[in-house]
């Protein structure tokens, strides 16, 4: 395709044939971007009680220290695993996110809804993080953003609880930044039985004259690692009837998300 991934001032820049297409960080900020969990029975434990897939994953991911940045980056999807997609690049870091050079200061009302809007961002308590972006093969639209964040397991559990409660109370909220103001609606969706705890929700951002932007967010915890797969679908101005036809549904990224969680589980068990 001739695409290359570059970082400028902390922002991921995608180039195709030498021409810069978009600053992903700027686009995510502009549109306000940065559940039931199924269980299946497995063999019984010593007490004769059936074990669930979640408890089995918990056994595999048990470790005393948070997963490192090197381990997280190794757990990101590879080009061979991301069938149907093209990965533009990846990065990782130890410790909390450094101060960004990108001016993304904004207000969110109610403030608790910031967790819904910034699910892929760290909260300053993460021990390590890794991320990458991929696009459907042959396109430069609808990016899938993958984020892995490592915490002590208790902190990861608390963060998932915090996010779940925020999604449950933020059916509608507003935010404003240097790009303008936006109103957002969100809804909780069913999610496959992935990892030890999983949450999926969808948001619709109304961007005034710029149109709309859908996001579909899947968040999965495995031990102390929180993995997020976020699908972004900007639509531009359109009628409500046509807008409904652009609503992103779980689909093309489901298989690769399952593979990602398998990678994370294996990383957490070493």
Q: How is this structure best described in words?
A:
The chain has a nine-stranded antiparallel beta sheet with strand order 6-8-9-14-13-12-11-10-7, with helices on both faces. It has seven helices and 14 strands. Strand 1 (3-8) and strand 2 form a beta hairpin. 23% of the residues lie in helices and 38% in strands. With 270 residues, the protein is an alpha+beta fold. Helix 3 runs antiparallel to helix 7 (254-268).
Offer a few descriptive terms.
270 residues, nine-stranded antiparallel sheet, three-stranded antiparallel sheet, disordered N terminus
Question: How are the secondary structure elements laid out?
Answer:
Blueprint: E1 3-8, E2 11-16, E3 19-23, H1 24-30, E4 41-44, E5 50-52, H2 53-60, H3 69-75, E6 85-94, E7 107-109, H4 114-117, E8 128-136, E9 144-150, H5 153-169, E10 172-177, E11 180-189, E12 197-206, E13 212-222, E14 225-236, H6 240-244, H7 254-268
Antiparallel strand pairs: 1-2, 2-3, 4-5, 6-8, 7-10, 8-9, 9-14, 10-11, 11-12, 12-13, 13-14
Count of alpha and pi helical runs:
7
User: Roughly what percent helix?
Assistant: 10-25%
Q: In this structure, how is the largest beta sheet organized? A: 9 strands, antiparallel
Strand content: 35-45%
Q: Outline the low-pLDDT stretches.
A: 1-61
Estimate the global geometry from the Cα principal axes.
globular
Instruction: Give the CA-CA distance, first to last residue.
Output: 36 Å
Using DSSP, what is the number of strands?
14
Q: Strand-and-helix sequence, N→C?
A: EEEHEEHHEEHEEHEEEEEHH
Label the structural class: alpha+beta
The main sheet orders its strands as 6-8-9-14-13-12-11-10-7
Tell me, rounded to a whole number, the average pLDDT.
78
The whole-angstrom Rg is 18 Å
């Amino acid at each position: 395709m001739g695409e290359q991934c570059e970082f400028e001032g902390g922002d991921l820049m995608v180039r195709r044939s030498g021409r810069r297409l978009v600053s992903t960080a700027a686009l995510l900020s502009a549109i306000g971007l940065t559940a039931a969990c199924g269980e299946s029975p497995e063999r019984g434990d010593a007490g004769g009680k059936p074990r669930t897939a979640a408890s089995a994953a918990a056994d595999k991911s048990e470790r005393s220290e948070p997963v490192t940045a090197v381990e997280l980056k190794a757990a990101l999807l590879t080009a061979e695993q991301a069938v149907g997609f093209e990965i533009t690049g990846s990065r990782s870091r130890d410790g909390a996110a450094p101060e960004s050079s990108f001016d993304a200061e904004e207000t969110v009302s109610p403030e608790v809804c910031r967790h819904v809007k910034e699910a892929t961002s760290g909260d300053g308590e993460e021990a390590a993080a890794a991320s990458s972006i991929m696009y459907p093969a042959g396109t430069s639209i609808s990016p899938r953003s993958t984020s892995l964040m490592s915490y002590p397991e208790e902190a990861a559990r608390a963060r998932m609880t915090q996010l779940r409660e925020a999604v449950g109370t933020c059916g509608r909220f507003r935010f404003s930044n240097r790009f303008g103001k936006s109103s957002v609606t969100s809804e909780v969706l069913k999610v496959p039985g992935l990892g030890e705890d999983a949450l999926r929700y969808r948001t619709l951002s109304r961007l005034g004259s710029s149109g709309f932007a859908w996001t579909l967010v899947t968040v999965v915890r495995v031990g102390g690692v929180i993995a997020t797969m976020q699908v972004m679908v900007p639509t531009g101005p359109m009628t409500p009837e046509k807008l409904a036809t652009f609503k992103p549904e779980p689909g093309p990224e489901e298989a690769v998300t399952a593979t990602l969680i398998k990678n994370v589980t294996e990383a957490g068990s070493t």
